[in-house]
Amino acid sequence: MVGRTLTSVAIIGGGPGGLGSAIALSQLPCLRVTLYEKNSEPREAGAGISLSTNAWRVLDLLEASDGVWGGSKSNTHQRNAYTGKILSITQHPENSAVDQRGSIRARRARLQSALLAKVPEGVIQFNKKLVSLESLPGEGVRLVFHDQTEVAADIVIGADGIHSWLDQVVRRALFSDHQLHFTGNTAWRVLIPKSRLAHLPEITSTTAWWWGKVGHVYFSDVDDGRDKDPQFEITIRSYHEPEVVGKTVGWGIPATNQRVASRVETFDQRVRDAVSVVAEGEWREFAGFAGPRLDNITGWDKVALIGDASHPLFGAFGSGATFAMEDGWILARAIERTQFASQPAQKALEIFNLIRAPYYTRMYEHLDEVHEKLQQLQAEKEDFNHFLQAKVNHFLYADKDFIYKNDIRKVWEDYLSTE
Ligand SMILES: Cc1cc2nc3c(=O)[nH]c(=O)nc-3n(C[C@H](O)[C@H](O)[C@H](O)COP(=O)(O)OP(=O)(O)OC[C@H]3O[C@@H](n4cnc5c(N)ncnc54)[C@H](O)[C@@H]3O)c2cc1C
């Protein structure tokens, strides 16, 4: 299959994971790569996206970093949402030491465009919503789309994001008993012209998290000096939203101002003033989902799940797009490495699983530790102000270098040295 004749690879989904995979895989002459995206055009739901050293490293490998820029996060404040008290200021000097570009917050659409620009012409097919897939014994995979067309592919990459769960397509095809549940954690996100907030310099002058008891607000630049009409991001998170059966699946759907404002009505006046400049119809709502964790992110010896399709972390580390691109790059290396092997697809997926599955396990272990620590803090510190300060301190000083400084090329080199 791989090596002698062209191996066909079908990528499902054109988010950061699918696009990153398409770039990396299209560089391999042994493959014929097609990306199927359900939307009718390139589209990115959401607002801003954080990019750190790990992101720059994989974007460099994909030769897509030149098209990405955003607001610097070099001056980040943690604040009490009710009083505005500044609990901590991070200057991020360590980032500039590792990579001059530092940590930024960029428009999601900009990351999407930078990746799209590097995907060779003819690779992407829009308006192609996958509705089912089936393993063909001894052969590849049969894919059926909503327009009733079908294709066969030797290798399938499920890069269909959290929709892999909601629409029950690639992930559910492999792991049919897995169910997704609403976590109660909902985000509302918007990008607005920064000029609308000109009367609130305290809001616009730094990246800031304003922490409340059952939610927080995040403010950030997403542009730098080169943008004529810079945009500004506001994201509100609520941790304990009630489930409304049949309705709590909103992903990028509009939310009313009244619904969003009610989540911050007890917050500091400056936060409420900033939220009030958002026009009706601009907010988008994202409901958080979780499900069983996967030890194995491949199936049928010819299907790999990447990015949110395998591990929807709902922005827990603010690095999910990078994880998805890293997955795609490693998968390309594994396929390249095994192209002349006797069962190339199976071997490539084994390598991919061996490298990436434990990395996600480590992330979940980190989240479990944080969760445990928060519960312990909550039990110890009855007063909210004391609890919040301890929480901020704990979050800031927890070691997350394995995420933000991850060097995916080195990860591959390390694998080769132990192979
Ligand atoms: C509130 C919030 C904040 C976040 N903040 C950050 C951040 O700061 N930094 C960061 O890196 N990450 C962040 N993330 C996470 C990040 O958005 C995701 O991890 C990332 O988008 C995952 O990329 P992906 O390619 O796996 O999936 P997606 O981006 O979800 O892309 C999936 C694609 O598949 C397509 N698709 C779905 N179903 C089908 C189908 N059946 N057929 C064909 N196409 C299909 C979709 O249309 C979409 O284009 C955040 C997430 C949330 C919710």
TrEMBL record:
Domain of life: Eukaryota
Keyword check for NADP: no
SUPFAM superfamilies, per the entry: FAD/NAD(P)-binding domain
Coiled-coil region list: 360-387
Boundaries of every FAD-binding domain copy: 7-335
Xref: Gene3D superfamilies: FAD/NAD(P)-binding domain (3.50.50.60)
A Pfam family assignment: FAD_binding_3
InterPro entries registered for this protein in UniProt: FAD-bd, FAD/NAD-bd_sf, FAD_monoxygenase
A Gene Ontology biological process term: secondary metabolite biosynthetic process
Keywords: Coiled coil, FAD, Flavoprotein, Oxidoreductase
One Gene Ontology molecular-function label: FAD binding
Official protein name in the record: FAD-binding domain-containing protein
Organism, scientific name: Penicillium atrosanguineum
Lineage, broadest ranks: Eukaryota, Fungi, Dikarya, Ascomycota, Pezizomycotina
